[in-house]
């Protein structure tokens, strides 16, 4: 890809598409599996979350809309209310995610603008001191 094509490409294309997104998600969840801060926030079975995160990232990066096609609007903050997320957890999530992107081979110059957005998203998920409904929103599948 020449420089003008790279600047016109979506972040999804810049990172390498679906294969890279899957590598990122796998590398991230491998870290979550052994993390003392994040692991307690995740369900016992991590597999369904992997698929959902991959679909979300594909869409969020400008690729296929598989997540919204299945679940509608992501409503990320609301979907995370059942989990008490503090600043430490949000920071750890970002750190492990950065490590996963690096392991997946995404160059730092492509990561950096994406992580500016991810940092805002991670801070938006902090809810530890908020009076929010803690019951799960549940999955609503679209036909």
TrEMBL record:
Coiled coil: none annotated. Pfam families: Bac_globin. The keyword Transport applies. Keywords: Heme, Iron, Metal-binding, Transport. InterPro entries: GlbO/GLB3-like, Globin-like_sf, Globin/Proto, Hemoglobin_trunc. Gene3D superfamilies: Globins. It comes from the Bacteria. The keyword Heme applies. PANTHER family: TWO-ON-TWO HEMOGLOBIN-3. Belongs to the truncated hemoglobin family. Group II subfamily. This is Globin. It comes from Tepidiforma flava. The lineage of its organism: Bacteria, Bacillati, Chloroflexota, Tepidiformia, Tepidiformales.
């Amino acid at each position: 890809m020449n420089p003008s094509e790279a600047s016109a490409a979506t972040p999804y294309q810049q990172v390498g598409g679906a294969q890279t997104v899957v590598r990122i998600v796998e590398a991230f969840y491998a870290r979550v599996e052994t993390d003392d801060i994040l692991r307690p926030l995740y369900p016992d079975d991590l597999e369904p979350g992997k698929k959902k995160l991959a679909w979300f990232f594909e869409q969020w990066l400008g690729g296929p809309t598989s997540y919204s096609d299945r679940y509608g609007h992501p409503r990320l903050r609301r979907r995370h209310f059942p989990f008490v997320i503090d600043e430490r957890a949000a920071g750890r999530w970002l750190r492990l995610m950065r490590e996963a992107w690096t392991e997946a081979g995404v160059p730092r110059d492509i990561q950096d603008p994406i992580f500016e957005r991810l940092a805002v998203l991670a801070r938006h998920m902090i809810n530890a001191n908020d009076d929010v409904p803690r019951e799960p929103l549940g999955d609503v599948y679209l036909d």
